[in-house]
Amino acid sequence: MSIEPAVEPGPARTAFSGRSRAGRRFAVSLSAVLMTTAFTFLGLLAITFFIGRVVPIDPVLAVVGDRAPQAVYERVREEMGLDRPLFVQFFSYVGDVLSGNFGMSVTTQRPVLDDLMQVFPATLEMATLGIIIGVALGVPMGVIAASRQGSLTDQAIRVVGLLGYSMPAFWLGLVGLLVFYARLQWVAGPGRIDIFYDGLIPTATGLMLVDSLVAGDLDVFWNAVSHIVLPASILGFFSLAYIARMTRSFMLNQLGQEYVTTARVKGVSERAVIWRHAFRPIRVPLITVVGLSYAGLLEGSVMIETVFSWPGIGNYLTAALFNADMNAVLGATLVIGAVFIVINKVSDALYRVLDPRAQ
After folding, report:
1. Which is nearest to 243 in space by CA: 285, 275, 289, 280?
2. What domain count does the chain have?
């Protein structure tokens, strides 16, 4: 009886096996992300549906008015499906949302989805510019404050952060308009663009700065910049306060570690110690900070949009609440919740890119 010698796996088979395992891990990870996203969105739908039922606002009265005959009230209530059992209403609501049907807005008499597609880019543009300002200034300020702990510079940066936490948004917006628009005339007034330029460029993305550059109309671009710079700077100031504070806290923790002391003993320059050694480990937690700040600007800019008459989702949501327009309220709430979900998932993906241990 002969015994066949064991065949060692070759390099090609080993490489194929490694790729296969990596592919399976990726598929499992992707499936988990999709499942958690689906369940999170389903929970969001359930919460918004529950809000729409417990808020003391009758959506039928918002449509027919409080002087409508009872027969008209009952007919509209039946057309809106509010006479059906609650669980049937919920599944119908989920089906409508997944098909893009958010209902009609009582205020604008248009589909809510069309309204949201018109107003959300304005909020997205202002919040994006605000978070860029917040990150560009807040991160260096936090690093400098930590590297000079206890100094006058550190105290000044901490005072700036405290002001960002304590100042009301509407008050700062009004003061900004009074100083920079009414007195100094450095910026344009409320609104997204002057009436003279309205409608001069085609709407491709809904982002005024992008569309004006794509159209090659620099007059519209600079007019849009003069309108957005003040509200975006105020939003950037609020995000700057939070980002600078958290960056300082993370950096102080890293600067107290032994590896930083070792680097200094070895003669590494202070600049390299701070940015190459201490700053790198805090990039991962900073992703969460920036992501939460960005999401907060997207959903929390109601006061700024009201003060500056900015035609964004915050202004739209406020008007819908005052007019008891529940379809618009729930649609805007869903969009804001979906933004949070997307930003969290993007943050998780960046975690895995910057920190392989999170795989």
Report:
1. 289
2. 2
Does residue 35 share a domain with residue 140? no
User: Side chain identity at 159, as an amino acid letter?
Assistant: V
Using only C-alpha atoms, what is the Rg of the chain? 27
- pLDDT tens-digit map of 187-245: 998 888 888 888 888 888 889 999 999 888 899 999 999 999 999 999 999 999 999 99
Report the SS3 class of residue 232: helix
Q: Of 98, 130, 160, which residue constitutes the final position of a domain?
A: 98
Q: Which of 327, 334, 341 is nearest to 48 (CA)?
A: 334
Determine contact, residues 211/204, Cβ cutoff 8 Å: yes
Q: 311 and 187 in one domain?
A: yes
Instruction: Please check whether residue 124 lies inside any domain of the structure.
Output: yes
Expressed in angstroms, the distance from the first to the final Cα of the chain is 49
Cβ atoms of 83 and 77 closer than 8 Å: yes
CA distance 144 to 149: 8
CA distance 48 to 328: 12
Q: Are 231 and 180 within 8 A, CB to CB?
A: no
In a domain, 13, yes or no: no
pLDDT, tens digit (0-9, with 9 covering 90-100), for 267-308: 888 888 888 888 888 888 898 889 888 888 887 678 888 889
- The 10 Å Cβ neighbour count of residue 154 is 17
**Running DSSP on this structure, what letter comes out for residue 148?**
T
Does residue 7 form part of some domain? no
